[in-house]
Amino acid sequence: MKNVIIRKQEDLPENLKYLTGKNFNPEESKDVLYIRNSYYIKGLAKIPYLMTLSLSILFGAIFLYTLIAELIRSSGSQFKSEGTYVTFIMFVFIFIFFLICRRYYKKSNELQEKTNSGEMKFGLWITPEHIINRDHNVGLYCIQKNEIDHSDIYRSGRPRLDMVALRLKNKQNLYVVADWLAGYSGKPEELKALIDQHV
Q1: Tell me: the pLDDT tens digits for 91-122?
Q2: Mean pLDDT, rounded, for 22-30
Q3: Which helix or strand (DSSP H or E) is residue 36 part of?
């Protein structure tokens, strides 16, 4: 099966590389249809960050409480408290998970700032010869329009997402999430009609 999908920015044709960066101005490009991404990655990354921060503080406090209580109770005799060890191990695991979530949150903030400043663009581009889609989950892909066989509407179960599935001639499938594009949330039929009109 021949792979016709370009997935890296550096592999894009020279005349398309500027589209996903700050040099692209949608108002000035008459031959490129651009639909910006409305997906707010920073907000989603904040949820696990705050949850693991809260749990880290909670288990850190429980660990300190059980440690101090056991030290006072043992008062110089041999220290042995399974509860203290268990809470310490739980605290360490949750704290490691918190550090991972914090790293993801920081990267999400950086990505959101680049998106807000226009340094990095996300969304759907339809050029005279190519379709480019770049989202926060799948990343970037670019295909020539003549590689598309047909399009369908696809609805995923959990989380519920409405998408347009691009069926390629080589039997590969690419998905454009309508819910992540400005003006097309819950309107995959309109997005499919737009893509079909330009292919």
Answers
A1: 899 999 999 999 988 888 887 787 777 777 88
A2: 81
A3: strand 33-36
Q: What does pTM read for this prediction?
A: 0.71
Bond into 48 cis (ω within 30): no
Closest to 125 measured CA to CA, from 41, 42, 21, 39:
21
Q: Each residue of 163-172: b (16+ CB within 10 Å) or e?
A: bbebebeeeb
Q: Are strands 123-126 and 148-156 parallel, antiparallel or unpaired?
A: unpaired
Contacts of 3 (CB under 8 A, 6+ apart): 170, 172
In eight-state DSSP terms, residue 171 is S
Residues 6+ apart with CB under 8 A from 183: 35, 38
Q: Count CA within 13 A, CB hemisphere, residue 145.
A: 12
Q: What is the pLDDT of residues 116-164, one digit of tens each?
A: 777 778 889 999 999 999 887 778 899 999 999 999 998 887 778 889 9
SS3 79: coil
Say if strands 139-144 and 148-156 run parallel, antiparallel, or are unpaired: unpaired
Burial class of 36 by CB neighbour count within 10 A (0 to 12, 13 to 18, 19+): middle
